[in-house]
Write a structure and sequence with these properties.
About 0% of the residues lie in helices and about 30% in strands. It is an all-beta fold and about 100 residues long. The chain has 2 domains: about 60 residues; about 30 residues, no CATH class. The radius of gyration is 14 Å and the shape is globular. The protein starts with a strand and ends in a 39-residue tail after the last strand.
Length: about 100
């Protein structure tokens, strides 16, 4: 799960390591991931083709009241225990 923010809304404190890969979306776009060098968890990422949005992994927030998801994508990769995905709206171009 991720939450998207404008880059000016994101402040990163502490160390992180970088990893860049090509998108699974079939568009050959690069995604730059920034992860914790201690545990390996991805903390935030951005698409080089979309610098106006920074994705922050919801697990990086220590807030149990963080809002629930508003959209879903990549259902074909979901674990079998994920339920009610079909009830979430999907962005254009993402189909189950």
């Amino acid at each position: 799960m991720q939450a998207a923010f404008r880059p000016d809304q994101v402040q990163v404190h502490g160390r992180y390591s970088d990893y860049t890969r090509i998108s699974d979306e079939g568009d050959s776009k690069e995604h730059a991931f920034h992860f914790c060098p201690e545990c390996g968890s991805t903390v935030y990422y951005y698409r080089k083709s979309d610098p106006a949005r920074t994705g922050v992994r919801v697990g990086a927030f220590a807030d149990p009241t963080f809002p629930p998801p508003m959209a879903s994508g990549f259902e074909e990769y979901a674990h079998p225990w994920v339920s009610n995905i079909a009830a979430l709206p999907m962005p254009l171009g993402h189909h189950a």
